[in-house]
Structures are given as C-alpha cells and as structure tokens.
Amino acid sequence: MTTFSNSPSQTDSEATRALQIIESMPGHAWSADAAGRFTYVSPSTLAFLGNAREDLNTSDNEDEFGWRRVVHPDDYDRVAAKWRHCLETGAHYDTEHRLRRADGVYRWFRNSGRPSRDSQGRITQWYGTTIDIDEQKRAEAALRDRERELSQLVDLVPSHLWRLTPDGEPTFFNRRMTDFLGLDLADTDRPGMSRLDAIIETVHLDDAAKFRDALNRCLVTGESFAMRYRLRRADGVYRWMSSRAEPLRDQDGRIVQWYGLCHDIDDQMRAEEALSQLHQMQSDFAHMNRVSTMGELAASLSHEITQPIASARNNARAALNFLDVLQPDLGEVREALACVVADADRAGDIIDRIREHIKKAPPRKERFDLNAAVEEVIALTRSVTNRNGVSVQTRFADGLCLVEGDRVQLQQVILNLILNAVEAIEAVEMGSRDLLISTEQVGKEIGVAVSDFGPGIDPTHLKHVFEAFYTTKPSGTGMGLSICRSIIDAHGGRLWVQANEPRGAVFRFILHGAEARS
Ligand code: ADP
C-alpha cells in the first residue's frame, strides 16, 4: 500500500509511531515531492476516494494533475492553478474544494500544504492535511441562506425598520426606509451634525420638535416610543407615519439597542379625514333635512299654536268677566286663570319641541322611554295627519326597556317615517288611511314599526330606498331615509323596510335596550 518515506534520519520504530499518529488523526494527511507528485496519501483518503495513490499521480494529459478525476470539475482549474503557483513559489498552499467520494458524492475539504526545504533552501517535500469541512460548509450555507432570508424580510417588510444605539444614533435603515427617504446611513453622516439630527431634518417642521422631545425622553427613561408624524419622502412629499420604537435589553436590563418600526399611514389618515368630512356633511344634511321638514310643518304648527292661544284668550276674558261683577267669585277667577296658564304651557311645549328639532345640537347620549318619544312625534305631526285624513293607530308594548341615544335624532327618524307614510297614503285615493305605529321588545332589542297601506315599494327598488338622493317624488330630496339609516346605524341598530299586507310598506328599526326600567 502506501509508504511513509520522508524521514530517512528517523529510526524505523520512530517512523512507525509517527505514521500511527498521523493515520489515527482525524482528517487526511499527504505528502508530495517538489514536483507535486504524491509521495504519501493516508489510507483514510484512499478509502474515501476509492483510488490508488498512483492514480492520483497519473494523468493521460501531462498538463493536468492525476487527481483531476476526484476533484469537482467546477473547482479543478482554481485548485490546480493555486497548486502550480505554490509549487513554483513555495507559497503556502491553502484551498477549499470538493472531492468525490467512492460512491460518487462530493464533499467539501480544506486542503493545506507547507513546503519542507533542505539546507540550501530547496523544497524537498510538501506536507499537508485535507480536512472534511462539508458539515461546516453546509452549516455556513444554511446560515447564509437564513441571513439572506432575514435581510430580505427586513428589506421587504412594508414598513421602515431602523436601529439606534442606546444614545439614539441610527445604525441601520432597511431598504424601504432608504428608498423612502432617498438617504442611506452614509448620507446621514454630515459634518457637525448627528445622524439622528440628519433624520429629524426629514420630519415635518411642525412635528420635528415634538418628535425630538418624545424620542429623547424615551432614550432617557427607556419607555417605548410611539408617535404619528409627517416624514418627507425622497420626492419632497410629506406622508403621515405611525412610528414605534422599543428598547432591546441585555440580561442585566441595560439597553443595548433600540429598534424602530415606522409605518406609512397617510392613506389611512386621508380616509379618516374624508370620513370625518363625510360625517360632518351627513350631520349638516341631517340638520338641513330637519329644518326643511320643520319648514313644511311650520304652517300646520302655527295652526296648532293658535289653538291654545285662542283658548288662553277666551279663558282670560272669562276671568275678566268674573272680576267685573260686584262681588267676584275668586274661585272661578282662579280656575279661569289656571286654564290660561295651562294653555300658555301647551303653546310653550309646542314651541319647545319645534326649537329642539331645529337647533343644531351635537348628538347626545341619554336614556329615555321610546314610547314617550314616539308619542311626542305623533303629537308633532298631528296637524299633518289630520289635514290628510290619516288616522294614527298606536300599539305600544308595555314596560319597554329604556333606550340609550340621541332622543332628538331618533325622533327625527320616526318623524321622517311618519311623513313618508302620510305621503304614501296620500298617493292612494281609495283604501285604508290608517297609519299604525307599534313598539315591541324581543329580548334586549327594542323595535319600532311604522306601517301604512300606501302603494308600497316596488320589490326591485327596495334596496335603493335607503340610498342618498333616491326619490320618486317630484319635490323629494331622497335624503330622508339615508339619514334615518345613518342615525340608526350610529346607534348600533338596524333599519329596514318590508312589504305590508295586503299592501303598503312597513319600515322597522331595532335598537338595543339600555336596561329595564326601575
Ligand atoms: P324623499 O321622501 O325625499 O323621496 P326618502 O329618502 O325619505 O326621500 O325616501 C326615498 C324614497 O323611498 C321615496 O321617494 C319613496 O319612493 C320611497 N318611500 C319612502 N317611504 C315610503 C313609503 N312609506 N311607502 C312607499 N314608498 C316609500
């Protein structure tokens, strides 16, 4: 087999021992002459390669090394060039390459060789080791893959990620952040300015001081940082960001890094703004609708008010007459005056109701009795229903839970439903002119239904009646039902319509009851 023939000065037993040591060491050992021909290859190598030492030295092509057959084709040229260079110059031979195992599988090895020289400095032998580093290579490759994945993740995550030292000096920006700012870490190194200051320069002037104060406070106290601010994009456009930063602490609780996450919320902020504008518009519309509805009612209300005033006048005159007699009956006078007061109160109530409906009050939250609120609306619409010959029937559930919400807004819903029903009844010449208003409670849900026997709603139009501006009336606005729905929605309830039997429409809404009456 192989021989170890490089130590002529050693005794045979020393040579044998040395060989034993070499051959029992992990890894493979080899020696080669000055021309690069192997003089020794450890048996473990030959077993691995399934090759005779001679094969490693023998080549059909004299420009090639015999071991070309066992080195991975992608590695051979590089390794051969290196080996040739070392043979020529005597430089240390250190390389990594794959070797083919007897079963055809390639494994990575680290190959190192050092020259041994004679007294004239001529290279006499090369001694080397070949160590299997396949596992290590795999582990390194896996680690590299993981690192790549992680850095891809950090770069591709749709947010800005950055890292700061405990003093607040930025040490890392992910790609999203550099792309957004048009700045990388190196660009924030400016003379006479900290990196953090360079970043704060990109924060909107109105937010910068607050940003700096908040961040500095967190750096001192170690509390989490959270703030919304505007940040300048590379194209100069400011966008709203929601930013958070958390400290990373070591085992002793000392802050070692800060990690910041910054998320673009500009679209969301715009949507919120648009929504709040929409709410404002809705409330303006609701107010307009209320005022215009009240405008329509004003004429008939004036009639309603004249009635208690006329009655007060009569009662006052009666009181005067009682006083005109020689011995006035004060009891009768008092009675007449009490009637005057009651009449005035009645007129006052009517005016209060109108005022309550017309004023633009912000939504209120109160608990109230829905039956009583419906009664009030019925009283308010009495002149309209009377004028149109509509008879209002009520079927109120006893002991309803109180309802929580804006009483005036909910009354407006009922008002709209009643006025729509009256208009629907008006549109039908013949048939019942009854308008039924009922309340009911199922579990904790309170329901109100306004039913009429008008023409009803064409089933294909059912889903449109709650849309804004949908109207079939020549002078309609199409806003009433859409406002009603938004009011009921805002109260967490539901408003819908269904066909009445034998004809007409039933508008229903349900609300959550607040609590049972005490
Ligand atoms: P407007 O009353 O100004 O038309 P609304 O939003 O209150 O606006 O109503 C929208 C449409 O729904 C009405 O034009 C009408 O076609 C229909 N509608 C509403 N209530 C009834 C009802 N009780 N019976 C039949 N149709 C109705």
Automatic annotation (TrEMBL):
<dbReference type="InterPro" id="IPR003661">
    <property type="entry name" value="HisK_dim/P_dom"/>
</dbReference>
<feature type="domain" description="PAS">
    <location>
        <begin position="14"/>
        <end position="90"/>
    </location>
</feature>
<dbReference type="Pfam" id="PF02518">
    <property type="entry name" value="HATPase_c"/>
</dbReference>
<dbReference type="InterPro" id="IPR036890">
    <property type="entry name" value="HATPase_C_sf"/>
</dbReference>
<dbReference type="Pfam" id="PF08447">
    <property type="entry name" value="PAS_3"/>
</dbReference>
<keyword id="KW-0418">Kinase</keyword>
<dbReference type="Pfam" id="PF00512">
    <property type="entry name" value="HisKA"/>
</dbReference>
<dbReference type="InterPro" id="IPR004358">
    <property type="entry name" value="Sig_transdc_His_kin-like_C"/>
</dbReference>
<dbReference type="InterPro" id="IPR052162">
    <property type="entry name" value="Sensor_kinase/Photoreceptor"/>
</dbReference>
<feature type="domain" description="PAC">
    <location>
        <begin position="225"/>
        <end position="277"/>
    </location>
</feature>
<dbReference type="InterPro" id="IPR035965">
    <property type="entry name" value="PAS-like_dom_sf"/>
</dbReference>
<keyword id="KW-0597">Phosphoprotein</keyword>
<dbReference type="InterPro" id="IPR000700">
    <property type="entry name" value="PAS-assoc_C"/>
</dbReference>
<feature type="domain" description="Histidine kinase">
    <location>
        <begin position="300"/>
        <end position="515"/>
    </location>
</feature>
<dbReference type="InterPro" id="IPR000014">
    <property type="entry name" value="PAS"/>
</dbReference>
<protein>
    <recommendedName>
        <fullName>histidine kinase</fullName>
        <ecNumber>2.7.13.3</ecNumber>
    </recommendedName>
</protein>
<dbReference type="InterPro" id="IPR005467">
    <property type="entry name" value="His_kinase_dom"/>
</dbReference>
<dbReference type="GO" id="GO:0000155">
    <property type="term" value="F:phosphorelay sensor kinase activity"/>
</dbReference>
<feature type="domain" description="PAS">
    <location>
        <begin position="146"/>
        <end position="222"/>
    </location>
</feature>
<keyword id="KW-0808">Transferase</keyword>
<feature type="domain" description="PAC">
    <location>
        <begin position="93"/>
        <end position="145"/>
    </location>
</feature>
<dbReference type="InterPro" id="IPR003594">
    <property type="entry name" value="HATPase_dom"/>
</dbReference>
<dbReference type="InterPro" id="IPR001610">
    <property type="entry name" value="PAC"/>
</dbReference>
<dbReference type="InterPro" id="IPR036097">
    <property type="entry name" value="HisK_dim/P_sf"/>
</dbReference>
<dbReference type="InterPro" id="IPR013655">
    <property type="entry name" value="PAS_fold_3"/>
</dbReference>
